[in-house]
Amino acid sequence: MKKIRNFFKNTFNKITLFYENKIRPRKDKVISFILKYLGISFVHKQFLKLNAKRRKAVIGLLFVLPWLVGLYIFGLQPFIQAIRISLADQAKYVIDLNTNSVAFEVKGWTFKHFISLFKTQPDHVELVFDVFLDILLIVPLVMVFALVLALMINQNIKGKGIFRVIFFIPVILLSGSMLYYFSEYNLLRAPAVESGAITSGIYKYLPAQLASLITLAFEKIVLILWLSGVQTLIFLAGLQKADKTVYEAASIDGANLWDSFWKITLPGLHSLMIINIIYTAVIYANLSNNRLVVLIENTLVDVRFGRPYSTALAWILFVIELLIIGIYTLLIKLSNKRYQ
Amino acid sequence: MKKMFTKRKLLGRTGNDGLIFKIVLYILFIGISFIFLYPILQMTVTSFMPLVDLIDPTTIWIPKNFTFENYLRAINALKFWRSLKDSFIVSIIPTIFVVFSSAFIGYGFASFDFPFKKTLMVVLLAIFLIPNILMSIPTYVIYRRLNLISSLKTYIYPALLGFGIRQTIFILIFYQFFKMIPEELKEAAEMDGAHAFKIFTHVAIPMSMPAFLITSLYSFVWYWNETSLPLKYFQKNDGTFSFTTLPMAVRDFVRVYRELYPTGTVGLEGASETFNQGVQFAGTMLSILPLLIVFFIAQKWFIESVDRSGIAGS
Fold first, then answer.
1. What residues of chain B lie within 8 A of the CB of A74, using their CB?
2. Which domains does chain B have, with CATH numbers?
3. How far apart are CA B64 and CA B103, in angstroms?
4. What CATH number belongs to A113-339?
5. Segment 17-76 of chain B within 8 Å of chain A by CB
6. d(Cα A280, Cα A137) in Å, to the nearest integer?
7. ipTM value of the model?
8. Which residue spans of chain A are classified as CATH 1.10.3720.10?
9. What pLDDT digit, counting tens, does each position of A23-78 carry?
10. Residues near A263 by Cβ (< 8 Å), separated by ≥ 6?
11. Which candidate in A167, A169, A171 is best for mutational testing of the B interface (most B CBs within 10 A)?
């Protein structure tokens, strides 16, 4: 053991000695030699000729370069390929018997996968609409719950740190498979809802549409709360940045809490709300237990449908996501205009 | 006078500092916390119940016959220690790449002006919107062509180039952090003869340690929880996997468990015995236990992350 350690110590010492005596004094020379050898010194000279602003632009681009390469390989290329596959007649792996190699073949241009989805697969169309409505309803519910939670935590009470920790646990655990087990074993609804007492009461006293929305909220209460962790904290950060003096001025003018919530707090949170809506829609649509995602995975390996069809479905998921973000962003922008 | 005083104490001056308000708030907090934790609590409790308790409708929360048997079986069926090792490899190694490349890219966006910067940042945001599944179908084809399938490179390469799991968020977090560094500090370093990379490593990085912590925590968690990507990317030609993470193992749990403990080898009769909720929940709990441990060690950072990332400011 000692021998080995000594051996390493000696070699290390030798290397450092060599570096200190031989390379260090000629460090600049060595580097310039390497640069010259690689042909970089020419580039470097050209670079020094640039003015300060341009030089900064070049350095900036060098920093972003990895991402630009990634954008081509993992962004642009798959994106175009996804368009191509969804419009292809066939896209599959073909085994070349001569060379015994596998090649990916994309053949033909057609729009038939999108058409056949709407024409011959009524159950898939129905599922697409279900998923659309599901996300459409979940997003505002998550917004409301996140806002209420943020307002609650923002109150000046003791022990709110513990509640913040509890509210944050789902952010760590949230994943498609986790939610799948929850729905599989009926853990998504809180025990009180199962008695049905609340839901029947709601239907008695409220208009049917509103009642069904509220029932849905109760039905999926755990899911909604589990989805709203990050959003709550984003709202909370916004609330804590709000100017306290505005509230004081308003209360002197006779505004009660209700007024100041609608007239000061809510308009101040508009931009954060848009961030939260985008975040919620993207995260929820991407969960692996999303029924459309499951359908895409299944059709991908199903001989009756194949790759182009499932890619077409994936595009529809993207459209759904964009539609929902668009609708709610527009709504918020419009209500924002009313305040100004 | 005294009546006025008690009224003020109960209701408060502005309506949100009275005693009644606070009591209502605490009740709400406790209620909501319960709903938040309900699935986890239910899973934890059930995972300690033997079959007798599961069938017995009078056992609701506290197991009457407390048992570790479920966990022992789950550890067997999950091949727990191997899956745990795989999970750590698959989450930690890409995370290292994700964090450093995000810092690098974020610094480029935050401190330099270059042509098309605004456009590129819009593209950066737009990428976040594209569903993973849409990109993963053609990406799989690319990986297969490059012969990367079933190796960890399928995770490392995108992470290195800014396209790891939800990496847009991390790049934006670093962007916010680096924006906050005062310009004078960078100029002073430049005066002293430091070049751009040295300023990055000696000024920017030491000043944004929280960002490194936050992004590595989140990245770790998100790589850990991912199930659909590893199922695609780590599958070998013969159908087995080069890495089996814990969430993947839990997915496959029912089948493996039935093979390990077929009907008849256990005491009680009935097919329901072979696979019961208790064991399933024990398996799920085991798969999230490491995450919970990481969370409770670092919960302060997780929670502060949102404040620190400056999302609310922009």
1. 135, 139, 157-158, 161, 163
2. 2-47 (no CATH), 79-251 (1.10.3720.10)
3. 52
4. 1.10.3720.10
5. 17, 22, 25-26, 28-29, 32-40, 42-43
6. 11
7. 0.84
8. 113-339
9. 666 767 777 677 666 666 667 777 777 777 888 888 888 899 999 999 998 999 99
10. A250, A255, A339
11. A169
